[in-house]
Amino acid sequence: MPPMNARPTPLELVKTDLVWDNSFYQLGKAFFTPLAPQPLSDPYWVGTSPAVAHLLRLDRGWLESDVLLQALSGNQPISGTQPLASVYSGHQFGQWAGQLGDGRAILLGQTNGLEVQLKGSGLTPYSRMGDGRAVLRSSIREFLCSEAMHALGIPTSRALCVTGSNDEVARESLETAAVVTRVAPSFIRFGHFEHFSARNQLSELTQLADYVMDRFYPDCRHAVGPDGNAYCALLQQVVARTAVMVAHWQAVGFCHGVMNTDNMSILGLTIDYGPFQFLDVYDPGHICNHSDRLGRYAFDRQPDIAHWNLFALAQALLPLIKDQAQALRALNTFKAIFDSSYQRLMGHKLGLTALDADIPHPCPLPAGEGVTARRALIDGILKLLAQDRVDYTIFWRRLSQAQASGNTEPVRDLFLDRPAFDAWMLSYQELSAHIDKGLQANLMLKTNPKYVLRNHLGENAIRAAKRGDYSGVASLLALLETPFDEHPDHEADAGFPPDWASQIEISCSS
Ligand code: AMP
Ligand code: MG
Questions:
Q1: Which atom of ligand 1 lies nearest, measured to the CA of 272?
Q2: Which 3 state secondary structure label does DSSP give 102?
Q3: Which of 262, 273, 291, 507 most suits a substitution to test ligand 1, by most atoms within 8 Å of the C-beta?
Q4: Active site residue 167
Q5: What is the 287 CA–ligand 2 centroid distance (Å)?
Q6: Residues of the chain where predicted confidence (pLDDT) is lower than 50
Q7: Contact, 47 vs 140, CB < 8 A?
Q8: Nearest CA-CA partner of 320 in 224, 197, 188, 215
Q9: By C-alpha distance, which of 260, 265, 250 is closest to 152?
Protein backbone atom coordinates (compact mmCIF):
# COMPACT_ATOMS: atom_id res chain seq x y z
CA MET A 1 0.00 0.00 0.00
CA PRO A 2 1.20 3.54 -0.65
CA PRO A 3 2.30 5.53 2.35
CA MET A 4 -0.40 7.84 3.69
CA ASN A 5 1.94 10.80 4.06
CA ALA A 6 1.64 13.82 1.77
CA ARG A 7 4.50 14.79 -0.44
CA PRO A 8 7.86 13.03 -0.06
CA THR A 9 10.95 15.19 0.27
CA PRO A 10 12.85 15.61 -3.01
CA LEU A 11 15.22 12.80 -3.92
CA GLU A 12 13.92 10.60 -1.17
CA LEU A 13 13.74 7.11 -2.73
CA VAL A 14 10.17 6.08 -3.34
CA LYS A 15 9.59 2.52 -2.23
CA THR A 16 6.69 0.97 -4.14
CA ASP A 17 5.58 -2.61 -3.69
CA LEU A 18 7.16 -3.43 -7.08
CA VAL A 19 10.28 -5.52 -7.53
CA TRP A 20 12.48 -4.07 -10.25
CA ASP A 21 15.24 -5.29 -12.47
CA ASN A 22 16.55 -3.97 -15.75
CA SER A 23 17.95 -6.56 -18.11
CA PHE A 24 18.39 -3.90 -20.78
CA TYR A 25 20.75 -2.11 -18.40
CA GLN A 26 22.89 -5.23 -18.28
CA LEU A 27 23.53 -4.96 -22.03
CA GLY A 28 26.08 -2.29 -21.19
CA LYS A 29 26.88 1.33 -21.88
CA ALA A 30 27.00 1.05 -25.68
CA PHE A 31 23.23 0.74 -25.63
CA PHE A 32 22.18 3.67 -23.46
CA THR A 33 23.04 6.58 -21.21
CA PRO A 34 22.10 6.18 -17.53
CA LEU A 35 20.01 9.19 -16.73
CA ALA A 36 17.31 10.31 -14.32
CA PRO A 37 14.10 11.93 -15.58
CA GLN A 38 13.85 15.69 -15.17
CA PRO A 39 11.38 17.15 -12.69
CA LEU A 40 7.99 18.50 -13.68
CA SER A 41 6.53 21.32 -11.57
CA ASP A 42 3.52 20.63 -9.37
CA PRO A 43 2.23 17.62 -11.28
CA TYR A 44 -1.35 16.37 -11.19
CA TRP A 45 -3.05 13.20 -12.38
CA VAL A 46 -4.65 13.48 -15.81
CA GLY A 47 -5.57 9.85 -16.38
CA THR A 48 -4.88 6.47 -14.80
CA SER A 49 -5.49 2.91 -15.90
CA PRO A 50 -6.35 0.55 -13.05
CA ALA A 51 -6.14 -2.32 -15.58
CA VAL A 52 -2.47 -1.58 -16.28
CA ALA A 53 -1.78 -1.12 -12.55
CA HIS A 54 -3.24 -4.60 -12.11
CA LEU A 55 -1.02 -5.92 -14.89
CA LEU A 56 2.00 -4.54 -13.08
CA ARG A 57 0.62 -5.88 -9.79
CA LEU A 58 0.74 -2.36 -8.47
CA ASP A 59 -1.69 -1.90 -5.65
CA ARG A 60 -4.43 0.37 -6.98
CA GLY A 61 -4.08 2.79 -4.08
CA TRP A 62 -0.76 3.89 -5.57
CA LEU A 63 -2.60 5.41 -8.51
CA GLU A 64 -4.12 7.99 -6.21
CA SER A 65 -1.00 8.59 -4.15
CA ASP A 66 1.04 11.76 -4.26
CA VAL A 67 4.18 9.65 -3.93
CA LEU A 68 3.65 7.87 -7.23
CA LEU A 69 2.42 11.07 -8.88
CA GLN A 70 5.76 12.68 -8.04
CA ALA A 71 7.78 9.61 -9.00
CA LEU A 72 6.11 9.13 -12.40
CA SER A 73 6.46 12.83 -13.17
CA GLY A 74 10.22 12.52 -12.73
CA ASN A 75 10.39 14.30 -9.38
CA GLN A 76 11.30 11.37 -7.21
CA PRO A 77 13.57 8.39 -7.87
CA ILE A 78 11.96 4.99 -7.43
CA SER A 79 13.87 2.50 -5.34
CA GLY A 80 15.24 -0.37 -7.44
CA THR A 81 14.98 1.35 -10.84
CA GLN A 82 17.97 2.07 -13.09
CA PRO A 83 16.73 4.87 -15.34
CA LEU A 84 18.26 5.17 -18.78
CA ALA A 85 17.74 6.57 -22.27
CA SER A 86 18.55 4.11 -25.07
CA VAL A 87 20.24 4.88 -28.36
CA TYR A 88 18.82 3.89 -31.74
CA SER A 89 18.82 5.13 -35.32
CA GLY A 90 16.33 4.75 -38.12
CA HIS A 91 14.77 5.58 -41.44
CA GLN A 92 12.33 8.48 -41.28
CA PHE A 93 9.98 9.01 -44.23
CA GLY A 94 12.11 6.63 -46.28
CA GLN A 95 15.44 8.40 -45.64
CA TRP A 96 18.27 7.28 -43.41
CA ALA A 97 18.13 9.66 -40.43
CA GLY A 98 21.22 8.46 -38.55
CA GLN A 99 21.27 8.49 -34.77
CA LEU A 100 18.01 9.21 -32.97
CA GLY A 101 17.40 7.55 -29.60
CA ASP A 102 15.11 8.12 -26.64
CA GLY A 103 15.02 11.90 -26.98
CA ARG A 104 12.27 12.33 -24.42
CA ALA A 105 11.77 8.88 -22.88
CA ILE A 106 13.39 7.28 -19.86
CA LEU A 107 13.23 3.57 -19.21
CA LEU A 108 12.88 3.04 -15.47
CA GLY A 109 13.40 -0.71 -15.57
CA GLN A 110 11.32 -3.86 -15.63
CA THR A 111 8.80 -5.11 -13.19
CA ASN A 112 6.71 -8.25 -13.54
CA GLY A 113 8.37 -8.81 -16.91
CA LEU A 114 7.30 -5.43 -18.28
CA GLU A 115 9.39 -2.40 -19.09
CA VAL A 116 8.12 0.85 -17.62
CA GLN A 117 9.01 3.99 -19.53
CA LEU A 118 8.31 7.67 -18.89
CA LYS A 119 7.65 9.62 -22.10
CA GLY A 120 8.07 13.37 -21.99
CA SER A 121 10.41 13.23 -19.02
CA GLY A 122 12.99 15.77 -20.15
CA LEU A 123 16.18 16.16 -22.14
CA THR A 124 18.47 13.24 -22.87
CA PRO A 125 21.71 13.02 -24.89
CA TYR A 126 19.46 11.96 -27.81
CA SER A 127 17.10 14.94 -27.73
CA ARG A 128 18.79 16.60 -30.74
CA MET A 129 16.81 19.82 -31.39
CA GLY A 130 13.91 18.78 -29.13
CA ASP A 131 13.08 19.88 -25.61
CA GLY A 132 12.56 16.41 -24.17
CA ARG A 133 8.96 17.15 -23.38
CA ALA A 134 5.56 15.95 -24.57
CA VAL A 135 2.42 18.07 -24.56
CA LEU A 136 -0.83 17.27 -22.77
CA ARG A 137 -2.88 16.61 -25.94
CA SER A 138 -0.50 14.04 -27.46
CA SER A 139 0.00 12.37 -24.08
CA ILE A 140 -3.76 11.94 -23.62
CA ARG A 141 -4.01 10.56 -27.16
CA GLU A 142 -1.22 8.04 -26.54
CA PHE A 143 -2.69 7.00 -23.19
CA LEU A 144 -6.20 6.46 -24.54
CA CYS A 145 -5.16 4.83 -27.79
CA SER A 146 -2.83 2.32 -26.12
CA GLU A 147 -5.68 1.10 -23.98
CA ALA A 148 -8.21 1.27 -26.82
CA MET A 149 -6.01 -0.86 -29.09
CA HIS A 150 -5.49 -3.40 -26.35
CA ALA A 151 -9.24 -3.70 -25.82
CA LEU A 152 -9.66 -4.24 -29.57
CA GLY A 153 -7.27 -7.18 -29.36
CA ILE A 154 -4.47 -5.41 -31.26
CA PRO A 155 -0.85 -5.91 -30.15
CA THR A 156 0.25 -2.67 -28.48
CA SER A 157 2.26 -1.03 -25.74
CA ARG A 158 0.08 -0.13 -22.76
CA ALA A 159 -0.19 3.03 -20.67
CA LEU A 160 -0.43 3.24 -16.89
CA CYS A 161 -1.11 6.95 -16.56
CA VAL A 162 -0.65 10.51 -17.69
CA THR A 163 0.49 13.19 -15.32
CA GLY A 164 0.35 16.84 -16.26
CA SER A 165 1.86 20.12 -15.19
CA ASN A 166 1.45 23.81 -15.94
CA ASP A 167 5.05 23.92 -17.18
CA GLU A 168 4.96 25.53 -20.61
CA VAL A 169 6.06 23.74 -23.75
CA ALA A 170 6.44 25.57 -27.04
CA ARG A 171 4.96 23.92 -30.11
CA GLU A 172 3.00 25.83 -32.80
CA SER A 173 1.58 27.62 -29.78
CA LEU A 174 2.35 27.47 -26.07
CA GLU A 175 1.03 24.29 -24.48
CA THR A 176 1.58 22.48 -21.21
CA ALA A 177 3.77 19.47 -20.42
CA ALA A 178 2.69 15.95 -19.55
CA VAL A 179 4.32 12.57 -19.01
CA VAL A 180 2.89 9.23 -20.13
CA THR A 181 3.98 6.16 -18.22
CA ARG A 182 4.00 3.43 -20.83
CA VAL A 183 4.46 -0.26 -20.44
CA ALA A 184 5.53 -3.05 -22.79
CA PRO A 185 7.57 -6.26 -22.61
CA SER A 186 10.19 -4.28 -24.56
CA PHE A 187 10.47 -0.96 -26.35
CA ILE A 188 13.26 -2.20 -28.63
CA ARG A 189 12.73 -0.99 -32.18
CA PHE A 190 13.98 -1.96 -35.64
CA GLY A 191 16.06 1.20 -35.28
CA HIS A 192 18.08 -0.27 -32.40
CA PHE A 193 19.38 -2.93 -34.81
CA GLU A 194 19.92 -0.43 -37.61
CA HIS A 195 22.00 1.69 -35.25
CA PHE A 196 24.66 -0.90 -34.49
CA SER A 197 24.63 -2.37 -37.98
CA ALA A 198 25.15 1.01 -39.65
CA ARG A 199 28.15 1.60 -37.39
CA ASN A 200 29.52 -1.84 -38.06
CA GLN A 201 29.41 -2.57 -34.32
CA LEU A 202 28.90 -6.26 -34.93
CA SER A 203 29.56 -7.38 -31.41
CA GLU A 204 26.80 -5.07 -30.09
CA LEU A 205 24.52 -6.08 -32.95
CA THR A 206 24.98 -9.74 -32.00
CA GLN A 207 24.49 -8.96 -28.33
CA LEU A 208 21.22 -7.14 -29.06
CA ALA A 209 19.91 -9.90 -31.34
CA ASP A 210 20.81 -12.55 -28.75
CA TYR A 211 19.11 -10.52 -26.03
CA VAL A 212 15.89 -10.16 -28.03
CA MET A 213 15.99 -13.77 -29.14
CA ASP A 214 16.61 -15.23 -25.69
CA ARG A 215 13.95 -13.13 -24.03
CA PHE A 216 11.21 -13.06 -26.64
CA TYR A 217 11.91 -15.53 -29.43
CA PRO A 218 13.64 -18.50 -27.76
CA ASP A 219 12.44 -20.93 -30.48
CA CYS A 220 14.82 -19.30 -32.95
CA ARG A 221 17.74 -21.02 -31.26
CA HIS A 222 16.42 -24.31 -32.55
CA ALA A 223 16.21 -23.21 -36.19
CA VAL A 224 17.22 -26.14 -38.41
CA GLY A 225 17.34 -27.00 -42.11
CA PRO A 226 18.69 -24.98 -45.04
CA ASP A 227 17.33 -21.77 -43.50
CA GLY A 228 18.62 -22.77 -40.09
CA ASN A 229 20.29 -19.51 -39.13
CA ALA A 230 18.92 -18.41 -35.74
CA TYR A 231 19.04 -14.71 -36.70
CA CYS A 232 17.12 -15.42 -39.87
CA ALA A 233 14.56 -17.27 -37.77
CA LEU A 234 14.36 -14.13 -35.63
CA LEU A 235 13.77 -12.01 -38.73
CA GLN A 236 11.11 -14.46 -39.87
CA GLN A 237 9.26 -14.20 -36.58
CA VAL A 238 9.40 -10.41 -36.59
CA VAL A 239 8.08 -10.49 -40.18
CA ALA A 240 5.18 -12.65 -39.00
CA ARG A 241 4.32 -10.54 -35.96
CA THR A 242 4.55 -7.30 -37.92
CA ALA A 243 2.32 -8.69 -40.68
CA VAL A 244 -0.29 -9.75 -38.13
CA MET A 245 -0.16 -6.35 -36.39
CA VAL A 246 -0.68 -4.44 -39.65
CA ALA A 247 -3.48 -6.81 -40.67
CA HIS A 248 -5.24 -5.78 -37.46
CA TRP A 249 -4.71 -2.10 -38.30
CA GLN A 250 -6.19 -2.51 -41.77
CA ALA A 251 -9.16 -4.51 -40.51
CA VAL A 252 -10.11 -2.07 -37.75
CA GLY A 253 -9.34 1.01 -39.86
CA PHE A 254 -6.35 2.29 -37.87
CA CYS A 255 -3.85 4.62 -39.49
CA HIS A 256 -0.56 4.87 -37.54
CA GLY A 257 0.70 7.99 -39.24
CA VAL A 258 4.49 7.75 -38.70
CA MET A 259 5.73 4.29 -39.62
CA ASN A 260 9.39 5.23 -39.46
CA THR A 261 11.68 2.30 -38.64
CA ASP A 262 12.40 3.82 -35.23
CA ASN A 263 8.67 3.51 -34.48
CA MET A 264 8.52 -0.21 -35.36
CA SER A 265 8.57 -2.57 -32.39
CA ILE A 266 10.75 -5.68 -32.60
CA LEU A 267 7.86 -7.47 -30.87
CA GLY A 268 5.24 -6.48 -33.45
CA LEU A 269 3.50 -4.11 -31.04
CA THR A 270 1.86 -0.86 -32.05
CA ILE A 271 4.09 1.78 -30.42
CA ASP A 272 4.76 5.51 -30.48
CA TYR A 273 1.27 6.83 -30.91
CA GLY A 274 1.54 10.21 -32.60
CA PRO A 275 -0.68 11.50 -35.42
CA PHE A 276 -2.68 8.24 -35.59
CA GLN A 277 -6.32 8.12 -36.60
CA PHE A 278 -9.18 5.67 -36.75
CA LEU A 279 -10.87 6.15 -40.10
CA ASP A 280 -14.15 7.99 -40.11
CA VAL A 281 -15.30 7.50 -43.73
CA TYR A 282 -13.62 4.64 -45.53
CA ASP A 283 -11.04 6.39 -47.68
CA PRO A 284 -8.26 3.92 -48.55
CA GLY A 285 -5.82 6.71 -49.41
CA HIS A 286 -6.47 8.63 -46.19
CA ILE A 287 -3.43 10.50 -44.80
CA CYS A 288 -3.88 11.15 -41.09
CA ASN A 289 -0.57 12.93 -40.49
CA HIS A 290 -0.60 16.54 -41.70
CA SER A 291 3.21 16.49 -41.80
CA ASP A 292 3.10 13.60 -44.32
CA ARG A 293 2.77 15.73 -47.44
CA LEU A 294 3.46 12.91 -49.91
CA GLY A 295 1.21 10.38 -48.23
CA ARG A 296 3.97 7.86 -47.59
CA TYR A 297 2.01 6.61 -44.58
CA ALA A 298 -1.46 6.74 -46.11
CA PHE A 299 -3.85 4.10 -44.75
CA ASP A 300 -3.65 1.71 -47.71
CA ARG A 301 0.14 1.94 -47.92
CA GLN A 302 0.69 0.63 -44.40
CA PRO A 303 1.20 -3.02 -45.36
CA ASP A 304 3.79 -2.11 -48.04
CA ILE A 305 5.52 0.28 -45.67
CA ALA A 306 5.71 -2.40 -42.97
CA HIS A 307 7.29 -4.67 -45.56
CA TRP A 308 9.73 -1.89 -46.53
CA ASN A 309 10.63 -1.40 -42.87
CA LEU A 310 11.24 -5.13 -42.51
CA PHE A 311 13.69 -4.87 -45.42
CA ALA A 312 15.55 -2.23 -43.41
CA LEU A 313 15.60 -4.60 -40.44
CA ALA A 314 16.78 -7.49 -42.64
CA GLN A 315 19.53 -5.28 -44.03
CA ALA A 316 20.61 -4.50 -40.48
CA LEU A 317 20.62 -8.19 -39.54
CA LEU A 318 22.44 -9.31 -42.68
CA PRO A 319 25.89 -9.40 -41.05
CA LEU A 320 24.42 -12.04 -38.70
CA ILE A 321 22.22 -13.86 -41.21
CA LYS A 322 25.06 -13.73 -43.76
CA ASP A 323 23.04 -15.36 -46.55
CA GLN A 324 21.06 -12.72 -48.46
CA ALA A 325 18.88 -15.29 -50.24
CA GLN A 326 17.85 -16.71 -46.88
CA ALA A 327 16.93 -13.26 -45.57
CA LEU A 328 14.91 -12.60 -48.72
CA ARG A 329 12.99 -15.85 -48.27
CA ALA A 330 12.03 -14.72 -44.76
CA LEU A 331 11.00 -11.29 -46.05
CA ASN A 332 9.00 -12.82 -48.86
CA THR A 333 6.67 -14.51 -46.40
CA PHE A 334 5.29 -11.10 -45.40
CA LYS A 335 2.62 -10.82 -48.09
CA ALA A 336 1.16 -14.28 -47.51
CA ILE A 337 1.07 -13.85 -43.72
CA PHE A 338 -0.44 -10.39 -44.00
CA ASP A 339 -2.98 -11.54 -46.53
CA SER A 340 -4.14 -14.60 -44.61
CA SER A 341 -4.33 -12.63 -41.34
CA TYR A 342 -6.27 -9.83 -43.00
CA GLN A 343 -8.66 -12.22 -44.71
CA ARG A 344 -9.21 -14.04 -41.43
CA LEU A 345 -9.92 -10.80 -39.55
CA MET A 346 -12.25 -9.54 -42.26
CA GLY A 347 -13.95 -12.93 -42.20
CA HIS A 348 -14.59 -12.38 -38.50
CA LYS A 349 -16.01 -8.94 -39.23
CA LEU A 350 -18.42 -10.54 -41.69
CA GLY A 351 -19.26 -13.30 -39.23
CA LEU A 352 -17.98 -15.86 -41.71
CA THR A 353 -15.50 -17.64 -39.47
CA ALA A 354 -16.90 -20.80 -40.97
CA LEU A 355 -14.32 -20.33 -43.66
CA ASP A 356 -11.40 -20.46 -41.24
CA ALA A 357 -9.76 -23.74 -40.51
CA ASP A 358 -8.38 -22.47 -37.20
CA ILE A 359 -11.72 -21.64 -35.62
CA PRO A 360 -14.32 -24.35 -35.12
CA HIS A 361 -17.72 -23.37 -36.42
CA PRO A 362 -21.00 -25.25 -36.39
CA CYS A 363 -21.35 -25.19 -40.19
CA PRO A 364 -18.05 -25.01 -42.04
CA LEU A 365 -18.16 -24.14 -45.72
CA PRO A 366 -16.03 -25.99 -48.26
CA ALA A 367 -12.62 -24.30 -48.00
CA GLY A 368 -11.48 -23.35 -51.53
CA GLU A 369 -14.80 -22.19 -52.90
CA GLY A 370 -15.71 -20.39 -49.67
CA VAL A 371 -12.41 -18.54 -49.49
CA THR A 372 -12.74 -17.18 -53.02
CA ALA A 373 -16.32 -16.10 -52.40
CA ARG A 374 -15.37 -14.40 -49.14
CA ARG A 375 -12.49 -12.57 -50.79
CA ALA A 376 -14.83 -11.26 -53.47
CA LEU A 377 -17.28 -10.17 -50.78
CA ILE A 378 -14.59 -8.25 -48.89
CA ASP A 379 -13.24 -6.58 -52.04
CA GLY A 380 -16.79 -5.75 -53.09
CA ILE A 381 -17.83 -4.05 -49.86
CA LEU A 382 -14.58 -2.09 -49.52
CA LYS A 383 -15.06 -0.77 -53.04
CA LEU A 384 -18.61 0.33 -52.20
CA LEU A 385 -17.60 1.86 -48.86
CA ALA A 386 -14.92 3.90 -50.61
CA GLN A 387 -17.16 4.93 -53.49
CA ASP A 388 -19.95 6.15 -51.20
CA ARG A 389 -17.58 7.43 -48.48
CA VAL A 390 -19.36 5.40 -45.83
CA ASP A 391 -18.32 5.59 -42.20
CA TYR A 392 -16.16 2.50 -41.62
CA THR A 393 -16.94 1.71 -37.97
CA ILE A 394 -20.65 2.49 -38.26
CA PHE A 395 -20.99 0.31 -41.34
CA TRP A 396 -19.62 -2.78 -39.59
CA ARG A 397 -21.66 -2.21 -36.47
CA ARG A 398 -24.88 -1.72 -38.43
CA LEU A 399 -24.14 -4.80 -40.53
CA SER A 400 -23.72 -6.79 -37.29
CA GLN A 401 -27.02 -5.43 -36.01
CA ALA A 402 -28.71 -6.27 -39.30
CA GLN A 403 -27.65 -9.89 -38.90
CA ALA A 404 -28.95 -9.83 -35.32
CA SER A 405 -32.33 -8.25 -36.06
CA GLY A 406 -32.97 -9.10 -39.69
CA ASN A 407 -33.56 -5.38 -40.39
CA THR A 408 -31.13 -4.25 -43.08
CA GLU A 409 -32.54 -0.72 -43.49
CA PRO A 410 -30.12 1.10 -41.13
CA VAL A 411 -27.08 -0.33 -42.86
CA ARG A 412 -28.59 0.15 -46.33
CA ASP A 413 -29.25 3.81 -45.49
CA LEU A 414 -25.51 4.41 -45.33
CA PHE A 415 -25.15 3.92 -49.09
CA LEU A 416 -25.90 6.20 -52.00
CA ASP A 417 -25.78 3.41 -54.53
CA ARG A 418 -28.53 1.27 -53.03
CA PRO A 419 -28.84 -1.20 -55.93
CA ALA A 420 -25.11 -1.95 -55.63
CA PHE A 421 -25.46 -2.45 -51.88
CA ASP A 422 -28.52 -4.68 -52.37
CA ALA A 423 -26.59 -6.84 -54.81
CA TRP A 424 -23.72 -7.12 -52.36
CA MET A 425 -26.09 -7.94 -49.50
CA LEU A 426 -27.63 -10.69 -51.59
CA SER A 427 -24.28 -12.42 -52.10
CA TYR A 428 -23.46 -11.90 -48.43
CA GLN A 429 -26.70 -13.51 -47.33
CA GLU A 430 -26.13 -16.37 -49.77
CA LEU A 431 -22.73 -17.02 -48.25
CA SER A 432 -24.20 -16.77 -44.74
CA ALA A 433 -27.27 -18.85 -45.53
CA HIS A 434 -26.12 -22.01 -43.80
CA ILE A 435 -24.81 -20.19 -40.70
CA ASP A 436 -26.90 -19.79 -37.56
CA LYS A 437 -27.82 -16.08 -37.59
CA GLY A 438 -27.72 -15.76 -33.82
CA LEU A 439 -24.20 -17.17 -33.64
CA GLN A 440 -23.11 -15.04 -36.55
CA ALA A 441 -24.52 -11.83 -35.10
CA ASN A 442 -22.96 -12.61 -31.76
CA LEU A 443 -19.54 -13.05 -33.29
CA MET A 444 -19.90 -9.87 -35.34
CA LEU A 445 -20.95 -7.77 -32.36
CA LYS A 446 -17.84 -8.97 -30.54
CA THR A 447 -15.64 -8.23 -33.54
CA ASN A 448 -16.94 -4.93 -34.85
CA PRO A 449 -16.48 -2.26 -32.18
CA LYS A 450 -19.17 0.24 -31.43
CA TYR A 451 -16.58 2.67 -30.07
CA VAL A 452 -13.20 3.61 -31.47
CA LEU A 453 -10.99 6.54 -30.51
CA ARG A 454 -12.11 8.89 -33.25
CA ASN A 455 -10.18 12.14 -33.44
CA HIS A 456 -13.10 14.25 -32.28
CA LEU A 457 -13.72 12.08 -29.19
CA GLY A 458 -10.09 12.46 -28.17
CA GLU A 459 -10.27 16.15 -28.98
CA ASN A 460 -13.29 16.72 -26.71
CA ALA A 461 -11.50 15.01 -23.81
CA ILE A 462 -8.35 17.04 -24.53
CA ARG A 463 -10.23 20.36 -24.64
CA ALA A 464 -11.84 19.62 -21.27
CA ALA A 465 -8.48 18.51 -19.82
CA LYS A 466 -6.92 21.78 -20.94
CA ARG A 467 -9.56 23.48 -18.79
CA GLY A 468 -8.62 21.26 -15.86
CA ASP A 469 -11.51 18.81 -16.23
CA TYR A 470 -10.13 15.27 -16.53
CA SER A 471 -13.45 13.46 -16.26
CA GLY A 472 -13.66 13.18 -20.05
CA VAL A 473 -10.36 11.26 -20.14
CA ALA A 474 -11.65 8.82 -17.52
CA SER A 475 -15.04 8.29 -19.15
CA LEU A 476 -13.52 7.86 -22.62
CA LEU A 477 -11.06 5.34 -21.19
CA ALA A 478 -13.94 3.37 -19.67
CA LEU A 479 -15.77 3.39 -23.01
CA LEU A 480 -12.73 2.33 -25.01
CA GLU A 481 -11.92 -0.44 -22.56
CA THR A 482 -15.21 -2.11 -23.49
CA PRO A 483 -15.62 -1.05 -27.13
CA PHE A 484 -17.96 -3.88 -28.12
CA ASP A 485 -20.49 -3.22 -25.37
CA GLU A 486 -23.56 -1.05 -25.58
CA HIS A 487 -23.21 2.11 -23.48
CA PRO A 488 -26.65 3.72 -23.59
CA ASP A 489 -25.36 6.92 -21.98
CA HIS A 490 -22.78 7.32 -24.71
CA GLU A 491 -24.83 6.81 -27.89
CA ALA A 492 -23.53 10.07 -29.34
CA ASP A 493 -19.94 8.84 -29.06
CA ALA A 494 -20.85 5.97 -31.40
CA GLY A 495 -22.40 8.28 -33.96
CA PHE A 496 -21.11 10.09 -37.02
CA PRO A 497 -18.32 12.56 -36.39
CA PRO A 498 -19.39 16.21 -36.30
CA ASP A 499 -18.46 18.46 -39.22
CA TRP A 500 -15.61 20.02 -37.28
CA ALA A 501 -13.91 16.62 -36.96
CA SER A 502 -12.55 16.86 -40.50
CA GLN A 503 -10.87 20.16 -39.58
CA ILE A 504 -8.79 18.61 -36.79
CA GLU A 505 -5.18 18.73 -37.91
CA ILE A 506 -2.90 16.18 -36.33
CA SER A 507 0.76 16.48 -37.22
CA CYS A 508 4.10 15.15 -35.97
CA SER A 509 4.09 18.00 -33.44
CA SER A 510 3.64 16.39 -30.07
P1 AMP B 1 8.85 10.43 -33.13
O2 AMP B 1 8.57 11.00 -34.47
O3 AMP B 1 7.97 10.95 -32.03
O4 AMP B 1 8.90 8.95 -33.16
O5 AMP B 1 10.31 10.93 -32.72
C6 AMP B 1 11.44 10.74 -33.51
C7 AMP B 1 12.67 11.03 -32.71
O8 AMP B 1 12.64 12.37 -32.23
C9 AMP B 1 12.88 10.15 -31.49
O10 AMP B 1 14.25 9.98 -31.32
C11 AMP B 1 12.28 10.98 -30.39
O12 AMP B 1 12.81 10.64 -29.13
C13 AMP B 1 12.71 12.37 -30.81
N14 AMP B 1 11.81 13.41 -30.31
C15 AMP B 1 10.54 13.66 -30.68
N16 AMP B 1 10.04 14.71 -30.00
C17 AMP B 1 11.02 15.13 -29.16
C18 AMP B 1 11.13 16.18 -28.20
N19 AMP B 1 10.13 17.00 -27.96
N20 AMP B 1 12.29 16.28 -27.54
C21 AMP B 1 13.31 15.46 -27.76
N22 AMP B 1 13.27 14.47 -28.67
C23 AMP B 1 12.15 14.31 -29.36
MG1 MG C 1 9.21 7.52 -32.04
A1: 4
A2: coil
A3: 262
A4: no
A5: 18
A6: 355-365
A7: yes
A8: 197
A9: 250
Give me the residue spans of the domains in the chain: 25-187, 191-241+285-344, 351-510
Structure confidence at residue 347 (pLDDT): 93
Name the pTM for this structure.
0.96
Distances (CA, A) of 191 to 90, 251, 268: 5, 26, 13
Per-position b or e across 420-447, b if 16+ CB within 10 A of its CB: ebeebbeebeebbeebeeebbbebbbeb
How far apart are alpha carbons 121 and 486 in whole angstroms?
37
pLDDT recorded at residue 10: 60
Which of 66, 102, 262, 292 does the annotation list as catalytic? Answer: 262
Give the span between the Cα atoms of 21 and 404, in whole angstroms. Answer: 50
Mean pLDDT over the full length of the chain: 94
Concatenated DSSP letters of 294-348: T-TT-GGGHHHHHHHHHHHHHHHHHHHH--HHHHHHHHTTHHHHHHHHHHHHHHH
At residue 358, the pLDDT reads: 44
Please report, for the chain, how many H helices and E strands are present, in that order: 16, 13
